[in-house]
Design a protein that fits this description.
This protein is α+β, with helices and mostly antiparallel strands. The protein is built from seven helices and 18 strands. The strands form five sheets. It has a seven-stranded mixed β-sheet with strand order 2-4-7-11-10-9-8, with no helix packed on it. A four-stranded parallel β-sheet has the order 15-16-17-18. Helix 4 links the parallel strand 15 and strand 16. It is globular and about 65 Å long. It starts with a strand and ends in a 9-residue tail after the last helix.
């Protein structure tokens, strides 16, 4: 556990927090006028290793060697020149700070951080953090890496949970979620949607699946994985008999079949490490998924696709009316897909560069 203190005066700026992996959906921008919840769980923090926010430079202003050094292997619209290493916390874990009213930015319904740090230390008035809570953005406070110091809190440091413990205790991420929006005539409106973290996780995984495909057709496991990945893979890869096969693998699951070339595996939510198999499966390409998303793939919710007739089985959910479903097919988050793909060295191959240019930015029906 740590508290973060002001680098200028030493005043405490956070509650005690423990480090976790940065969520895959941390940079997601979802919909229009959508009220997204808090990004980080209370009592946790994550370090964003990449620059965030302004100033920005267009791609033609960046030298190829610099982009390569920053881990970007294909053109992007613009690059942030903000400082890397921001500490991301939940807004409720901030202490001893005040908002800077003139740093509202170009926000619509809240704060977007476009004008730089918008939170100051109450003790010495130094800018220390940026709060983000505008519509369509995940709510978070980003502590400036040069404005704060990390101070350990006395007490035992708990060891990260094992994979077996996580598989038993961690909550699955539901596929569907009610979304609230601003701007309706009667105030906030709601609609039933695919869960935004699922769409971001799918965009992240889809980039890895394309790299793992090596330009060949891929077949994912039947069930939820088919619904969220197969349509996009079929649209983005050549048609024909699948030549590469993906399978689910992870803690508490049987060893994957020998013919699986690609494994969908979980990311440890605390350490950020990807689960890795042993034995012959160790040579397969590992596609990382947030643990909650992976758990839903492994044990999908027991929803019936159609109303049941006759006597209801014991394990069927007795919802009346039946749960609503989104009005559109599942689509992976396009921004997360692009952000991930351009940072994988394999994107330098001609076929992936051509795919990124033709499908990544044209509003394709398989990318949201």
């Amino acid at each position: 556990m740590f508290v973060f203190v002001c680098a200028g005066c030493g005043a405490e700026l956070t509650a005690p927090v423990s480090q976790v992996a940065l969520p895959v959906h941390a940079r997601q921008r979802y919909g229009n006028g959508v009220q997204l919840p808090v990004l980080m769980r209370a009592g946790t923090f994550a370090v964003d290793p990449e620059p965030w926010g302004g100033p920005w430079r267009m791609w033609d202003e960046v030298e190829p060697d610099e982009a390569e050094a920053r881990g970007i292997h294909a053109p992007v619209p613009a690059l942030s020149d903000g400082p890397p290493g921001a500490v991301v916390i939940a807004p409720g874990d901030a202490r001893g700070t005040r908002l800077i009213p003139e740093k509202r930015g170009g926000s619509c319904c809240g704060l977007d951080g476009a004008d730089g740090p918008n939170m100051a230390c109450e003790t010495c008035d130094s800018p220390v953090a940026t709060r983000v809570d505008d519509c369509s953005l995940w709510q978070a406070v980003r502590l400036g890496p040069d404005a704060v110091h990390r101070v350990p809190v006395d007490g035992a440091r708990p060891a990260p949970l094992s994979w077996a413990e996580l598989a038993e205790t961690w909550e699955a991420t539901p596929l569907f979620d009610p979304i609230a929006t601003w701007g309706g005539r009667s105030g906030a409106n709601h609609y039933w949607s695919w869960n935004p973290p699922w769409e971001a996780a799918a965009g992240h995984a889809l980039a890895h699946l394309l790299v793992a495909s090596e330009g060949q057709a891929v077949r994912v496991p039947d069930g939820v994985a088919t619904d969220v990945f197969q349509r996009a893979l079929d649209a983005l890869l050549p048609a024909g008999a699948p030549k590469r096969r993906a399978a689910l693998a992870g803690p508490e699951l049987p060893a994957p079949e020998a013919e699986a070339d690609i494994l969908l595996v979980p990311i440890h939510p605390r350490t950020g490490r990807t689960w890795a198999p042993e034995g012959p499966a160790a040579s397969a390409y590992l596609v990382p998924l947030p643990l909650g998303v992976w758990l839903t793939l492994v044990s999908p919710p027991p929803y019936l696709p159609v109303p049941a007739s006759g006597r209801m089985p014991r394990d069927v959910l007795r919802d009346d009316p039946l749960p609503l479903l989104p009005y559109w097919p599942f689509r992976a988050d396009r921004r997360t897909f692009e952000h991930t793909l351009v940072r994988l060295p394999a994107v330098r191959s001609p076929w992936l560069r051509a795919l990124l240019e033709s499908h990544g930015r044209d509003g394709s029906a398989v990318l949201g």
